[in-house]
């Protein structure tokens, strides 16, 4: 995947994240009815970076919150991040739009 395609996915998903998840708690319940299990997740602005799988170039972007703001403002550049060589970035970016729907 080229970085330009990654930026398109990341920036569009950042806007959806802001609208639907930012600063919200979500309770996940799973298991069977007799012994359900659960966990709660809080979706902070700084958490969006993890969902993308990209690694920041720290000389260009100083924090995950800065990354998120650049995504929302359409200022993310191919020089701002790298993609994992093991393919995890590509896998995360493939499913990210699907889970944001």
Key words describing this protein structure:
101 residues, two-stranded antiparallel ribbon, single chain, globular, alpha+beta
In words, what does this structure look like?
- This protein is α+β, with helices and mostly antiparallel strands.
- The strands form two sheets. The chain has a two-stranded antiparallel sheet with strand order 1-2. It has a two-stranded antiparallel sheet with strand order 3-4.
- A hairpin with a 6-residue loop joins strand 1 and strand 2.
- The two termini are 21 Å apart.
Tell how many strands the DSSP assignment holds.
4
Strand count, sense and barrel status of the largest sheet are: 2 strands, antiparallel
What's the tally of helices? 4
Poorly predicted spans: none
Largest sheet: spatial strand order: 1-2
- In terms of structural class, how would the helical and strand content be classed? alpha+beta
Note the beta-strand portion.
15-25%
Distance between the termini: 21 Å
Order of helices and strands: HEEHEHEH
Mean pLDDT: 95
**Coarse morphology:** globular
* Computed CA radius of gyration, to the nearest angstrom: 15 Å
Percent helix: 40-55%
């Amino acid at each position: 995947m080229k970085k330009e395609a990654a930026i398109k996915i990341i920036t569009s998903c950042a806007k959806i994240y802001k609208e639907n998840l930012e600063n919200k708690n979500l309770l996940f319940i799973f298991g069977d009815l007799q012994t359900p299990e659960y966990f709660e997740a809080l979706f902070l602005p700084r958490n969006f970076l993890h969902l993308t799988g990209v690694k920041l170039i720290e000389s260009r972007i100083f924090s995950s919150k800065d990354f998120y703001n650049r995504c929302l403002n359409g200022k993310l550049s191919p020089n701002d991040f790298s993609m994992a060589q093991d393919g995890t970035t590509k896998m995360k970016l493939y499913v990210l739009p699907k889970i944001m729907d």
